[in-house]
Design goal:
Blueprint: H1 2-24, H2 27-42, H3 45-68, H4 74-90, H5 96-107, H6 112-137, H7 141-146, H8 150-173, H9 183-196, H10 198-206, H11 213-227, H12 238-250, H13 254-279, E1 312-318, H14 325-333, E2 341-347, H15 354-360, E3 364-367, H16 374-386, E4 392-396, H17 407-415, E5 421-433, H18 436-453, E6 465-468, H19 470-475, H20 485-494, E7 499-507, H21 518-533
Parallel strand pairs: 1-2, 1-4, 2-3, 5-7
Antiparallel strand pairs: 4-6, 5-6
Helix pairs in contact: 2-13, 3-4, 3-9, 3-10, 4-5, 4-13, 5-6, 6-8, 6-9, 6-11, 10-13, 11-12, 12-13, 20-21
């Protein structure tokens, strides 16, 4: 119901905007609009320089905000301003202003109160600067536009500015990391508005109705004040009406004034969409968080001491694998691993004889209360394995696709102290049989994991054969119950553990069924990967 209401409201607002444009676009305005566009196309250098000034204005604003909020990087300040600009050009009711704050909160570790206070402070500085410029540029413009009630608007704006500044000062006095803009920051804000005014200045010149720079500043100031009350998405209609009225009051004919206003708004909107779209993802992390591990990772965590008689603990999650689990367990016990072997079978709610057959083969069976999922079973297996104070932990699937004879090779880098986390790679080893669509899916997902981790040596992102040093097994966290493959690798790499691969043999199962169904798999894995990448241990570098 809420979505339907928003859709209807949006359509109504759009219809009002179209109706407004149809009302004001008479022949004179259309002809003037055509002349403006032709002039800009024929001589684009002036507009290019104006847009460069417009971009420079946001650089100055970013530096000014950074001076007000210590700890805010210049890059994230720039990004937040452009994300806000993008929002204000596509959303109604100036909702883009909220994105200025949420961009910083999503992409930095700064606390909410100083971020909000500094944003309010900078907007107050903006309004003071633009109001002062308007009064200096064309002193009588606002009374002529608004009439005898202009002082009401001035009083409301003054109260809002003072309230924002007082709140920021109280937060600063209370120890919050926010301060009033220093003099250079105030100068940067004033200069930013002058630079922004060059857009309407250049378009008016191209239209054959040049404005002085002070008049262009005044027109820009009027549009900013009017945009504070904008209802339509991007302020469509409000901007054009305010700018047109301001230029008519200065002496520009109505038709050309409207053409200049509409073109100026369109140019600014194109800039907002283009640069704001970039600012959603640059610099990292993006507005939606990290999509890859950072380039710089922590140092390798210290190892856990291992006793001379510590065992190797292998664990196998099992859900209805009665046909294969006994053979896999027996195959593990047949290997010479150089240490005593303990095999744990995590019975994930099996309804067949899997547990009995695993126990008969010599495994210790640990029962889950019900079928919780592979990720939950692996989490339980790692925790149970650490109870034995192991020299190494081994994990493999119980479906017979992975050969127990490869256990020594997968464990070797761990036992030798050369790696903390080892994956048995099917694609660098020998694949006896793999269904074509599964091979393709595994290769695509592996490319994705390689991109996520920035590791060119990663050749198998979904392998069911892995080994861990005790410190890695103890530190491993799996953020969802459905699966473990990608999030476990991201988790351990983000914590600084050393990664390695060894080739293994693989053959597709002859019995049972896989739990993987593409749509369901991706719907679980992609959100979990994003959550993992944005967990605290990944927020480094």
């Amino acid at each position: 119901m809420g979505r339907r209401i928003r859709t209807v409201a949006g359509l109504v607002i759009l219809a009002i905007a179209v109706w407004y444009l149809a009302r004001v676009l008479d022949r004179e305005a259309l002809a003037a609009l055509g002349r403006v566009l032709r002039s800009l196309v024929d001589a684009p250098l002036g507009l290019t320089l104006a847009l460069t000034c417009y971009a420079a204005a946001f650089v100055l604003r970013a530096l000014a905000w950074r001076a007000t909020l210590p700890g805010l990087s210049a890059g994230q300040s720039w990004a937040a301003l452009h994300v806000s600009l993008l929002g204000n050009h596509v959303l109604p009711l100036r909702l883009g202003e909220a994105l200025r704050v949420t961009s910083v909160l999503r992409r930095t570790d700064l606390e909410a109160r100083p971020v909000i206070a500094s944003a309010v402070t900078m907007r107050a500085a903006d309004f003071l600067a633009v109001a002062g410029l308007a009064v200096i540029a064309v002193p009588g413009l606002m009374p002529r536009l608004v009439g005898p009630w202009w002082w009401v608007f001035a009083a409301v704006a003054a109260v809002a500015v003072v309230a924002g500044l007082v709140w920021s000062m109280r937060l600063a006095a209370g120890g919050a990391q926010v301060r009033l803009p220093p003099l250079p920051a105030c100068a940067a804000v004033v200069a930013a508005w002058i630079l922004e005014s060059t857009v309407v200045y250049e378009i008016a010149r191209a239209a054959g109705h040049p404005l002085t720079l002070t008049e262009a500043v005044a027109v820009t100031a009027v549009t900013i004040v009017a945009q504070a009350f904008a209802v339509t998405p991007g302020g469509i209609g409000t901007y054009e009406a305010a700018a047109t009225a301001a230029m008519v009051a200065i002496g520009v004919p109505a038709g050309p004034a409207f053409a200049i206003a509409l073109t100026t708004h369109a140019v600014k909107t194109i800039y907002a969409l283009a640069v704001g779209g970039v600012a959603l993802v640059v610099p990292a992390p993006s507005y939606w968080g990290r999509w890859r591990l950072p380039r710089e990772l922590p140092q390798v965590p210290p190892p856990i001491p291992v006793a001379p008689d510590a065992p190797v603990v292998a664990f196998l999650p099992v859900h209805n694998e009665e046909a294969t689990v006994g053979g896999v367990v027996a195959g593990l016990f047949a290997q010479d691993l150089g240490r005593r072997l303990v095999v744990l079978v995590i019975d994930d709610g099996s309804t067949d004889s899997s547990a009995a057959r695993a126990q008969a083969a010599g495994a210790v069976v640990v029962a889950q209360p019900r079928n919780l999922g592979l990720g939950a079973a692996v989490r339980r297996g790692l925790a149970e394995a650490m109870e034995y104070r192991p020299a190494a932990v081994l994990y493999l699937d119980a479906d017979g696709e992975y050969a127990p004879s490869d256990a020594a090779a997968v464990l070797a880098p761990v036992l030798a102290g050369e790696a903390d986390y080892v994956v048995g790679s099917r694609f660098s080893g020998e694949i006896g049989r793999m269904l074509p669509h599964r091979r393709f899916g595994n290769q695509v997902l592996t490319l994705w994991v390689r991109w996520l981790t920035r590791r060119r040596d990663l050749t198998d992102g979904q392998s069911g054969y892995r080994a861990f040093r005790p410190a890695a097994a103890a530190a491993a966290e799996i953020v969802h119950d459905y699966n473990y493959a990608q999030v476990l690798t991201l988790d351990l790499l983000a914590k600084g553990f050393r990664y390695a691969e060894v080739p293994i043999t693989y053959s597709f199962r002859d019995s049972g069924t896989s739990f993987v169904r593409l749509g369901r798999y991706l719907s679980h894995v992609i959100p979990a990967v994003h959550r993992e990448l944005n967990s605290p241990q990944a927020d480094v570098g």
